[in-house]
From TrEMBL:
ATP binds at K245. SUPFAM superfamilies: Protein kinase-like (PK-like). Residues 1-22 are annotated as: Disordered. It is an enzyme of class 2 (transferase). One of its GO terms (molecular function) is eukaryotic translation initiation factor 2alpha kinase activity. It comes from the Eukaryota. The lineage of its organism: Eukaryota, Fungi, Dikarya, Ascomycota, Taphrinomycotina. Keywords: ATP-binding, Coiled coil, Kinase, Nucleotide-binding, Phosphoprotein, Protein synthesis inhibitor, Serine/threonine-protein kinase, Transferase. GO terms for biological process: negative regulation of cytoplasmic translational initiation in response to stress. One of its GO terms (cellular component) is cytoplasm. Belongs to the protein kinase superfamily. Ser/Thr protein kinase family. GCN2 subfamily. Residues 216-654 form the Protein kinase domain. This is non-specific serine/threonine protein kinase. Residues 662-689 form a coiled coil.
Length: 695
């Protein structure tokens, strides 16, 4: 049977090969079986096996709960034997469903049957599925494994898997549940499958139902972070606009336990000052997806991404703790990232500037993922320039290890082709659906700072104090209730969500235009609720200690300007672990100063924050806001001396919420008085005009 298939394929030679590029194996001109050039990665095979298994369970058990239990029983057995990881979990369900859909189609083709005319249960009888699976898996084993030992291990896993299925089915109520691994497979449809006009597995797979495309209408790209892209998308059912974060996953991150960390943490959070999370899922990036290069820079004013090139650059400039000097030696648009690492003696920190590193995503850095030149250039063509405000510190690696991680060798490049977690190089993405926010605090402050410099008018100052108290409430919830440390608090990760005045946690702020304002021009005011977002670096307080003990190091990532000194020094590591929440307090200290004291230029920001880190505040600020000044300095003191967020909220600045509300009413009164004054002036002007015309 196989030789006739081979002949059929040989006859169709070139285009046949093309069409079957993704077939599990191809047949060479000498008749020998050759490995498919693009090999299916192992995780894909695990998912493929599990999706088959899940289908079998569904077919054998009509009751969904029973079939789920049966599936879990088998999956746990496989996992306990070390054959799979957590590919059986809900997180991968969408991928497994897509695979089983493609396998159903493939089965229909393999049996040369028109699926629409045949009852699904008849078509997919258990025997056929199991036999097909065995045949498919053994083919897959060839296509997947480089080493003979791998191949043997894979065959072993198929055997183990089949045994488990047999065991389960013999204990279930399946009437014809014998899985005959060696039963003959009807290959009558194989010639068709190998013919140039038929579908390859890849094509079948492409008909997957994408939850993203079926449930959402993508409206625009909002921005790009270290991990992925964020889109504004409208849900087709409820008509509401959401922020959808798409995080492309590498094989390594797929198998790492913290891959779903951000979505899992978000799912547990429930606080008015923390961004609202709706759902998350994993699927393969649909083909007809807007290329992020379509990012519309013209709308950067209204979208949040308008970020940051400016302030990020400033963040980098600040970060020269070695020399304590402001380093302005490189262009912000040049995608250069500063990476701090200890020298091989573990005594000094040395910033290293590297273009290549700057283009590695944080996710990649975290997972120790090696990026090939090909992937690098592919991603470069896909990405906007990296704005370079992130850094990563590998506490336990020396410089050479660090650079080895990113050095490119042909071997790496070869191995990396297996690191793409899909059949056809389209990435598997984690989707996180969140509440859409109007703008980030960073953008708001950038626009505000075009209107003000130095000390703010009292009423405006009070509003920012109120805003900060809302942020503190959110952080206190994270620290005290959820036992988390955010690790990346900064204006860009605080979102402003427009709200009704009565909404809990709302603050009334002027809607700055970002253009120079005329002295008497009054700005529209709106209510906003600040929401803490971007939980990509969040850690539970207990994990901070554990990760340190297990790995002999504590990995830090974050943003230069807001990084507490203990994040950067191995000598202070113990303090960082002991007072992990103090890391957030340090960042909040800088943020509070930024809220209260507008900077005229980027360089001024760099210089003032640099001085603040040394305990020096502007004189006018010290004079006019002594309470706030001493609080900020205490927040930037040594980790053990920093107040907790709960203690900060108890200081007279924030403790009396009635006073805080009073701030708001004072602000409202000021506005009303201002409006009253303007109206009076207009009235006077009108009277004069009327007097002139009556004469
Ligand atoms: N809920 C949201 N509503 C509106 N815009 C958002 C939302 N979440 C993210 N964005 C926009 O998408 C951009 C990217 O967000 P993301 O959280 O991925 O990264 P980031 O915070 O900019 O960087 P990183 O993750 O590297 O710290 C943000 O800068 C912001 O402009």
């Amino acid at each position: 049977m196989l030789s006739s298939s081979r002949n059929a394929h040989d006859e169709n030679s070139a285009c046949g090969k093309n069409n079957n590029r993704q077939a599990l194996s191809t047949y060479g001109s000498n008749g020998s079986v050759q490995l498919s050039k693009q090999k299916a990665p192992k995780i894909t095979c695990k998912l493929l096996l599990l999706s088959l298994l899940e289908s079998i369970c569904k077919l054998s058990q009509k009751n969904p709960e029973n079939s789920q239990n049966m599936f879990l029983y088998i999956a746990y057995s496989l996992r306990n034997s070390g054959l799979i990881d957590d590919e059986y979990s809900k997180d991968y369900e969408a991928i497994r469903l897509a695979y089983s859909g493609a396998i159903h189609e493939l089965l229909a083709q393999a049996h040369n049957v028109n699926m629409s005319n045949v009852h699904e249960e008849e078509l997919l009888s258990l025997n056929k599925s199991a036999s097909f699976m065995s045949a498919l898996s053994s083919q897959t084993a060839y296509a997947t494994c480089d080493e003979p030992s791998d191949s043997a291990a894979f065959s072993g896993s198929v055997d183990a898997f089949t045994d488990i299925v047999n065991h389960v089915s013999s204990n279930s109520d399946v009437s014809d549940g014998t899985f005959l691994k060696d039963s003959p497979l009807n290959f009558s449809g194989l010639e068709d499958y190998l013919s140039p006009n038929s579908s390859s597995f890849e094509k079948l797979y492409n008909v997957q139902k994408s939850r993203y495309s079926s449930d959402f209408e993508e409206l625009k790209l909002l921005g790009k972070g270290g991990y992925g892209y964020v889109y504004k998308a409208r849900n087709k059912f409820d008509g509401v606009d959401y922020a959808l974060k798409k995080i492309p996953l590498t094989l390594r991150s797929l198998s790492s336990s913290n891959m779903f960390r951000e979505s899992r943490i978000l799912a547990r959070l429930n606080h008015p000052n923390v961004i609202r999370f709706y759902s998350s899922w994993v699927e393969i990036e649909p083909y007809h997806h807007n290329d992020p290069t379509e990012f519309d820079s013209t709308c950067s004013e209204d979208i949040l991404n308008s970020k940051s090139i400016e302030s990020n650059a400033a963040d980098n400039l600040l970060f020269d703790i070695e020399t304590d000097s402001v380093n302005n030696g490189y262009s912000s648009t040049n995608s250069i990232q500063v990476v701090f690492e200890e020298d091989s003696y573990g005594t000094n920190f040395e910033p290293s500037y590297s273009k290549k590193q700057s283009t590695c995503s944080l996710a990649a850095l975290f997972s120790g993922y090696k990026e090939t030149e090909r992937e690098y250039s592919k991603r470069r063509s896909f990405e906007k320039p990296f704005t370079g405000d992130d850094f990563l510190y590998y506490g336990k690696e020396n410089r050479s290890d660090r650079f080895d991680k990113f050095s490119l060798s042909s071997k790496d490049e070869d191995s990396m082709t297996h690191d793409v977690p899909c059949f056809d190089q389209r990435p598997i993405c984690l989707y996180i659906q969140m509440a859409l926010c109007e703008e980030t605090l960073e953008i708001h402050l950038n626009k505000r700072n075009k209107h003000f410099r130095g000390m703010l008018p009292k009423n405006l100052c009070n509003r920012y104090i109120l805003l900060f108290s809302r942020i503190l409430e959110g952080v206190m919830y994270l620290h005290n209730v959820m036992d988390l440390v955010h690790h990346d608090l900064k204006p860009r990760n605080i979102f402003l969500s427009s709200s009704a005045s009565s909404e809990q946690g709302s603050v009334r702020l002027p809607c700055f235009t970002g253009k120079s304002q005329l002295a008497n021009e009054s700005l529209e005011n709106k209510f906003f609720v600040p929401k803490i977002g971007d939980f990509g670096l969040v850690l539970s307080q207990s994990d901070v200690g554990e990760s340190s003990e297990e790995n002999g190091g504590y990995y830090f990532a974050g943003t230069h300007t807001y990084a507490a000194p203990e994040m950067l020094s191995r000598h202070m590591k113990a303090q960082a672990i002991k007072n992990s929440t103090a890391i957030d307090v340090y960042a909040l200290g800088i943020l509070f100063f930024e809220l209260l004291y507008p900077f005229g230029t980027r360089m001024e920001r760099v210089s003032l924050i640099n001085k603040l880190k040394k305990g020096i505040l502007p004189e006018d600020f010290l004079e006019q806001m002594p309470g706030e000044a001493s609080l900020i300095l205490s927040m930037l003191s040594s980790p053990a001396k920093r107040p907790t967020v709960a203690q900060i909220l108890k200081t007279p600045i924030f403790s009396n919420m009635a006073v805080n509300e009073l701030h708001l009413y004072e602000a409202l009164l000021d506005d009303a008085q201002q409006q009253n004054k303007t109206l009076k002036e207009e009235l006077e002007a009108m009277k004069i005009r009327m007097g002139a015309t009556s004469k």
